[in-house]
Specification:
The complex is a heterotrimer of chains A (99), B (127) and C (130). Chain B has 127 residues and is of the alpha/beta class. Chain B is built from five helices and five strands; from the N terminus they run αβαβαβαβαβ. Chain C is α/β, with parallel strands linked by helices. Chain C has a single domain, classed as 3-Layer(aba) Sandwich (Hypothetical Protein Ychn, Chain: A), CATH 3.40.1260. Classes of the chains: A alpha/beta (99), B alpha/beta (127), C alpha/beta (130). Chains A and C meet through α4 of A and α1 and β5 of C.
């Protein structure tokens, strides 16, 4: 399953709820305001580090760049563009948006 | 409608409810999809997670806000053959709620079981 | 692969609409099929032809209509959500006794069953919302 999260972990619990429901082999893609969660040295980044042991973490590069945080993304997450988003959706049998 | 559908393509639909009623329209319009979707005879489950559990609270009275109280509709779902309602225990606990506070019979399951339910679904609808 | 897209938010307020458009465009460029784009909740407002954004900004409705025309997309606006929010086509305007319609070219108004059907027929349903 591919999970998408589009809100910051400070605004809503969708990020935490997503991580609590992601299973081994799933992928989590942070998009829109969700990308802030992948900033280095933050509490959500620590949670992502934990999650990354079982789940693949991706961030949407155009959203990262738009928000001026391109140089501050934690190690271990992969950047994808919209085509990469499409690939992830195609690779996983279902897509769950944590709205 | 295509023959393939009449021939009975049945998918596992999961409606994920994570928002409280009234503050936004999502809970109501999600329920409208469930009602329309019932006619398609799919394998339907409803999941109530996070603030979605508030949708099922007993004793809702919307007179004072001049909005439609749609909570009784959850009780009518059975008549549409929508019978699989799952509520996450952790979400109830965190909000100081118990199964007895809910307007309709549900199956209370753990976050882990909820995760499995999601993984087994073929179409996930979240609003 | 056959994708269905669900758009739950209105234009300009939420980026969800922009992401949905970029995803749809990227999927088409990769040779995938878009079975349907379904607009629900405030998402129905993507389909009003009366929007006039500043010239230096994107025109979200036009962008959908143009992509729709180019790829023969089925852009469907939910009728129940549309009626609540004042989005009408010619027939609905007549039926409801309104003095005008505002649906954009390439969009059509139909029922929620179209969303369910999209879920059944498509290989993937991808949701964009708030």
């Amino acid at each position: 399953m591919l999970h998408t999260v589009n809100k910051t972990p400070y605004e809503r619990n969708s990020f935490d709820s997503c991580l609590a429901h992601a299973r081994k082999g799933d992928a989590v893609l942070l998009i829109e305001d969700g990308v802030y969660a992948a900033m280095k040295g933050t509490a959500p980044a620590k949670k992502l580090e934990q999650a990354a042991k079982a789940v693949a973490i991706y961030v949407l590069q155009p959203d990262v760049e738009a928000r001026g945080i391109a140089g501050r993304i934690m190690d271990g997450v992969k950047l994808v563009d919209y085509a990469g988003f499409v690939d992830l959706a195609a690779e996983h049998p279902t897509v769950q948006a944590w709205l | 409608m295509s023959e393939e559908m009449e021939g009975g393509t049945v998918k596992k639909f999961l409606y994920v409810n994570r928002k409280a009623p009234y503050g936004t329209i999502y809970a109501l319009e999600s329920l409208e999809v469930v009602l329309i979707g019932a006619a398609f005879e799919q394998d339907v489950s409803l999941a109530f997670i996070d603030d979605g559990v508030y949708e099922l609270m007993k004793g809702q009275n919307t007179k004072g806000i001049d909005m439609k109280n749609f909570s009784p509709t959850y009780r009518a779902l059975e008549g549409y053959d929508v019978e699989k309602l799952y509520v996450e225990k952790e979400s109830l606990d965190a909000r100081g709620l118990a199964e007895a506070d809910l307007i309709v019979p549900v199956k209370v399951i753990s976050a882990r079981e909820m995760t499995d339910l999601m993984a087994e679904s073929e179409v996930v609808l979240s609003f | 692969m056959k994708f269905a897209i669900l758009v739950n938010e209105g234009p300009y307020t939420h980026q969800a609409v922009d992401t949905a458009y970029q995803f749809t465009k990227a999927a088409l460029e990769k040779g995938h099929e878009i079975f349907r784009v379904f607009f629900y909740h405030d998402g129905v407002n993507n389909g009003t032809r009366l929007m006039v954004p500043p010239q230096d900004d994107r025109n979200i409705q036009k962008r959908w209509s143009e992509l729709g025309e180019k790829h023969k997309l089925d852009l469907v606006v939910c009728i129940a959500a549309a009626q609540r929010r004042g989005l009408l086509d010619e027939n609905e305007a007549k039926r409801q006794g309104k003095d005008g319609n505002n649906i954009a070219p390439g969009f059509r108004i139909s029922g929620l069953g179209q969303l369910i059907e999209a879920g059944i027929q498509a290989d993937r349903l991808v949701t964009f919302g708030d």
